[in-house]
Specification:
The structure holds two protein chains of two kinds.
Chain A (H helix, E strand, L loop, with lengths): L2 E3 L4 E5 L4 E3 L2 E3 L5 E7 L6 E5 L10 E2 L10 E3 L8 E8 L7 E3 L3 E6 L1
Parallel strand pairs in A: 2-11
Antiparallel strand pairs in A: 1-4, 3-8, 5-6, 5-9, 7-8, 9-10, 9-11
Chain B lengths: L3 E4 L2 E4 L5 E7 L6 E7 L5 E8 L5 E2 L8 E7 L2 E6 L8 E8 L6 E3 L3 E5 L1
Parallel strand pairs in B: 2-11
Antiparallel strand pairs in B: 1-3, 3-8, 4-5, 4-9, 5-6, 7-8, 9-10, 9-11
The chains are: A mainly beta, B mainly beta.
C-alpha cells in the first residue's frame, strides 16, 4: 500500500525566511512524487514533480529514496506563498492513481 | 495548458434527492479521470477511477451504488450522488489525465450541501 505523510499541519514563517515542508512516503516500488499547491479559493495546481527536477516559484524538492522523503524547500519565503501544500505519490506505470498527504498550511507573515 | 471544468461549483439539495456533478476536459481528451472527496481541513480521498468506455473502479469503502460514475466520452465524466443524505455533504473534486508528461489537472471542485 502507498502512503504519504506530511507531519506538519501548520507551518508559519516570516517573509524572507527559509521554508521546508516535509513529506515522507511509503511505497515498495519506484514512485512518482508531486507537490500540489492550493491557494485560497483556487483549485489545486501542480507545483513540482520529481521527474522534471525543475524549480517553480523558487521551490525545489529532491527525492531521497534512502530516506523516502520528498521535502519541499524555498530559501526565501514570500507572502504570496501562503497556501495549502499537498505532497502526492503515484505508483507510475499504467496506474495514474494519486495518493495525497494530509497537507500543510503554510502561512508567511510580513 | 490542460483545463478541466467542473460544474456546478456548489449545490444545495434536499435529503433523498440525487445530484449530478460534471467534469469536462476542455482542450484535451482524457482517457482517465478521478473523483476525490475532501472533508473540511482534510486531505483529498480518492473515491474512484473513471475510464472512458468502461466501468469505474471504486476505492475500498466507497459505495458504488451511491456514487454513480459515468465516463461516456473522452471529455466528460459525471458523478451522481444518489439519494443524498447530510453525511454526503462534502467537497468533490475531479481530475483528468491527458498523458504522463502533463500529469494531472484538477477541476475547481463542487461544494455539495445536503439539507
Amino acid at each position: 500500500a502507498q502512503r504519504v505523510t506530511q507531519p506538519e499541519k501548520l507551518l508559519s514563517v516570516f517573509k524572507g525566511a527559509p521554508v521546508e515542508l516535509k513529506c515522507n512516503y511509503s511505497y515498495s516500488g519506484s514512485p512518482e512524487l508531486f507537490w500540489y499547491v492550493q491557494y485560497s479559493r483556487q483549485r489545486l495546481q501542480l507545483l513540482l514533480r520529481h521527474i522534471s527536477r525543475e524549480s517553480i516559484k523558487g521551490f525545489t524538492a529532491d527525492l531521497n529514496k534512502g530516506e523516502t522523503s520528498f521535502h519541499l524547500k524555498k530559501p526565501f519565503a514570500q507572502e504570496e506563498d501562503s497556501a495549502m501544500y499537498y505532497c502526492a505519490l503515484s505508483s507510475g506505470g499504467s496506474n495514474y492513481k494519486l495518493t495525497f498527504g494530509k497537507g500543510t498550511l503554510l502561512t508567511v507573515n510580513p | 495548458g490542460a483545463v478541466v471544468s467542473q460544474h456546478p461549483s456548489w449545490v444545495i439539495c434536499k435529503s433523498g434527492t440525487s445530484v449530478k456533478i460534471e467534469c469536462r476536459s476542455l482542450d484535451f481528451q482524457a482517457t482517465t479521470m478521478f473523483w476525490y472527496r475532501q472533508f473540511p481541513k482534510q486531505s483529498l480521498m480518492l473515491m474512484a477511477t473513471s475510464n472512458e468506455g468502461s466501468k469505474a473502479t471504486y476505492e475500498q469503502g466507497v459505495e458504488k451504488d451511491k456514487f454513480l460514475i459515468n465516463h461516456a466520452s473522452l471529455t466528460l465524466s459525471t458523478l451522481t450522488v444518489t439519494s443524498a443524505h447530510p453525511e454526503d455533504s462534502s467537497f468533490y473534486i475531479c481530475s483528468a489525465v491527458r498523458d504522463r508528461v502533463d500529469g494531472y489537472t484538477f477541476g475547481s471542485g463542487t461544494r455539495l450541501t445536503v439539507v
